[in-house]
Automatic annotation (TrEMBL):
The chain crosses the membrane at residues 20-42, 62-82, 103-124, 144-170, 191-219, 242-264. This is Glycerophosphoryl diester phosphodiesterase membrane domain-containing protein. The keyword Aminoacyl-tRNA synthetase does not apply. It comes from the Bacteria. Keywords: Membrane, Transmembrane, Transmembrane helix. The keyword Transport does not apply.
Length: 285
């Protein structure tokens, strides 16, 4: 059974955003601008009852917001598929139709179980986790702790053991869920550790960009009562103060998404012998 080379895989994943600036970054920039434009068109800045300033989608714009959100979600799926295919070096990375459908279905297989577990955890905790309101009777700390542990364990199992199904779907491999499960066999902790290194790196990148923007005077950081309105206007493309926040968001999201996608793609490549071994064992059985 092949073991994942953690340092090598992490190194390749963290350098991927720089090595694939072209052709990937322009697409991420357009998608981010699309998200900002949609939010600016369907929402407005307002204050809540407790005085917090934020964005709220107007009721009249709700159907438009839902439709635009769905279109942006499909665009993100296709961009993720393109990222996998470019990093994997396939001959025709721009053929996105069938891989995007498979990727979407695999994504649903991830999302639905996690959503069900979160809802179950909310029920166990008396609804406080979902609504933010205190339950009629305070939930036992043991039950709440078990609910949280259940969420983490479920996420760990689903993402680590089946996460490699995503690049498999993007690369048009048959039975991507089974393939991802076989590839990750015996490598759960290695995959988890590699993923956490990428998360930490993304947090560092975000912090550095934010501090750099603050030093250059294009971002008011940390937030204060005086600049919270500017932060809320981050989705308003006509607001000059939104430029710094938008720049940091675009660069951070690009780095995080490409590095995570590259991590899954390189991991699948490194662990491919496990897929072949699992298929051979199944055939022999």
């Amino acid at each position: 059974m092949v073991k994942l080379p953690v340092l090598e895989t992490t190194g390749h994943a963290l350098t991927a955003p720089f090595r694939y600036v072209w052709p990937l970054f322009p697409f991420y920039l357009v998608l981010q601008l699309g998200m900002v434009g949609v939010m600016g068109a369907v929402s407005s800045v307002g204050a809540s009852a407790d005085g917090d300033v934020g964005l709220a989608v107007e009721t009249a714009n709700l159907p438009l917001a839902i439709a635009a959100g769905f279109v942006l979600f499909i665009a993100f799926i296709m961009l993720a598929v393109l990222t996998h295919r470019v990093i994997a070096g396939v001959e025709e990375p721009w053929q996105l139709g069938r891989p995007s459908v498979s990727y979407f279905l695999v994504s649903l297989c991830f999302s639905l179980p996690l959503l069900a577990i979160i809802l179950l955890a909310g029920m166990v905790s008396g609804g406080a986790m979902l609504t933010g309101a205190p339950a009629a009777a305070p939930p036992p700390s043991v039950a709440l702790s078990l609910a949280l542990i259940g969420i983490y364990v479920a996420f760990f199992f689903i993402f680590v053991r089946l996460g490699l199904a995503l690049p498999a779907a993007a690369l048009e491999q048959p039975k991507p869920l089974l393939l991802g499960y076989r590839a990750s066999s015996g490598n759960g902790w290695r995959l988890f550790g590699c993923f956490m290194l990428i998360v930490i790196a993304a947090m560092i990148v975000s912090t550095v960009l934010t501090l750099l923007g603050s030093g250059l005077g294009i971002i008011d950081w940390p937030p204060t009562d005086e600049n919270v309105q500017g932060l809320a206007n981050a989705f308003d493309l006509s607001d000059p103060d939104a430029f710094g926040i938008l720049t940091v968001n675009v660069l951070t999201n690009y780095f995080t998404t490409v590095a995570s996608t590259a991590f899954l793609t390189y991991s699948l490549r490194a662990l491919w012998p496990n897929v072949e071994g699992g298929a051979a064992a199944a055939s022999a059985g």
